[in-house]
Amino acid sequence: MLLYFSLLSLGIELHGTGDRIFLCLTISHKDARNHKRTVFYTTIRSAASTRKGEAKMPAIEPTEDQLREFRNLPHGKPVVMLNLLKFKPDGGKKLYDRYGVASTRLILKLGGKILYYGRPLMPVIGDDLWDAVILVQYPSISAFIEMVESEPYQAAAPDRHNSLEDSRLIAMDSVPLDPRITP
Known about the structure:
alpha+beta; Alpha-Beta Plaits
C-alpha cells in the first residue's frame, strides 16, 4: 500500500538549554481529503561525546541504556521515528535502499507508514547535513520492537548497519498544537 500526499511544509527546530536539546518537528501536508498539520516534540539528551572540543562519535546502533529507556516508554499510542542518515561513500545509499525495501514491507504489515522521505538541501541553522531524512509512524512502540526483533528484520539489518557512516533515530510523540497557531 502506497500513501500519497502533498507535503506543504516541513519545519525542524532545535532548542538547547543546559544539557538538553529539544526537537520540534512540524509537518503540514495535504492528502486526498484535507489539509493536516502534525507536530512532534521530543527531548534529546546531549551526550558526553558532544561536549565542547570533543569530536562526535558516529551512532549506528542504539546503546543498551537507550534500548532500556525506549522499552520503558508508554506503549499504547503511535510513535514516529525520525531517521537522520549519512550514507557511506561508494555504495552506502544502494545498500540502504535494499534494507529500505525489506523494512518498508514490515512497517506496512504492522500498520505503520512512511510519513516522509527526503534529501536535505542544506542546513539553514547549524552545520549538520544528512544524506536522508525519514519519518516513519508505527502504531506503537510495541509494534516497532516487534518489527526489529523479527527474523525478516534481523536478516535485513546488516544492510542498514553496513550502509551507514552515521545516523540518528529519534522516537517522537505527537502533541496538540496551540489553537492560536493552527491555520
